[in-house]
Amino acid sequence: MKKIILLLITFFCIQNSFSQNSIPENDIQKKTYNNEDVQVKAEFQDGEKKFNEYVVMAFKKEKHKDYPKIVLASFIVGIDGSLEDVEIGSGGRKNVCKEIKKIIENSPKWLPAEHEGYRVRAKVKVSLNFQE
Length: 132
Known about the structure:
alpha+beta; five-stranded mixed sheet
């Protein structure tokens, strides 16, 4: 009898822990905000400067003769910190933009934005500086 009770308790604990991992969506979390309009902005783990360094280090300048000096990019930081909908606003040639976009998409997770006590999706705009 004790084994059955222990088994049931274990089952309910496991089920409860899985249900808490799913992020409930409410009206605040369904909206995508501009990063400037939230109470806590989405940011790269060590700040925007480190994100710029990450992208520049991953980009192979020697492979591209006419790479841009500055690239404007935007993307959405999800509730879990993942990046989606990456767009390159400027950046020169198509193959260069494509490579930079891929680097950003493979970026480590960001710290998500927060608004009214909830993690929210936020659109972030960055200016990446490739000058030495």
